[in-house]
Amino acid sequence: MKFINLKEESERCLLCKAPRCQPACPVNTEIPRIIKLYMDGRYLEAGEILFENNPMSAVCSLICPFEDQCMGSCIRGIKGEPIDFPKIENYISTKYLEKVEFLKGKNKNKKVAIVGSGPAGLTLAFILAKKGYGITIFEGHEKIGGVLRYGVPNFRLSNDILGLMEKKLIKLGVKFRFNEIIGNTTTVDDLLKDSYDAVFIGSGVWNARKLNIKGETLGHVSYAINYLKSPDS
Q1: What confidence tens digit (pLDDT) does each residue in 17-36 have?
Q2: 137 - beta bridge partners?
Q3: What is the pTM for the complete model shown?
Q4: Per the CATH hierarchy, to which homologous superfamily does domain 103-233 belong?
Q5: Which of 82, 106, 124, 150 is 20 to 30 A from 216 via CA?
Q6: What is the chain's alpha carbon radius of gyration, rounded to the nearest angstrom?
Q7: How many CB atoms lie within 10 A of CB 213?
């Protein structure tokens, strides 16, 4: 990974009034505003803005295809190096998560079951738990993260950030039910019957895409998703 001085990198930003980077971001991150706050030393304020816009900011800043999005659209990149905003974003977002103490909203006396603890499930859990909903996450694996943990190599996305998110969610009152697959013994209808007011299904797609070629079933074909889940097997 290329080392950069974040302060020097942020000072290269032109703080464009009509930025090309912001609309290139799928979640419309206010990049010039974030960089200006960072330059002013207002890290926590910048982190709050990032989190409220995208609770997965600390993750997206590591694994997004930013070369085709914010960095790929940076005007600085036309004749030189674009601003490496993802590194700035990751620093701010991670520090914010480490320091922030989320406040749970007034209890709404509503229970929501979230099936899957991948990026969609974790995002919804943060949003609803902060608003006062009772959240239970059903995860088929023994740890949270879904594709973030079992589909992204650790050198690209450290599991430490997932552990930090889990701690923050637990403090918000979120309950986790690991090694529970919804759809076999327990169904969505069962959850709704058992006092859950709503069910969100964010289980992801774990089945490998078949090649449909002769000999595929003879044991010499390894699918990417299976390898990423268990690279040592």
Answers
A1: 999 999 999 999 999 999 99
A2: 114, 176
A3: 0.90
A4: FAD/NAD(P)-binding domain (3.50.50.60)
A5: 150
A6: 20
A7: 7
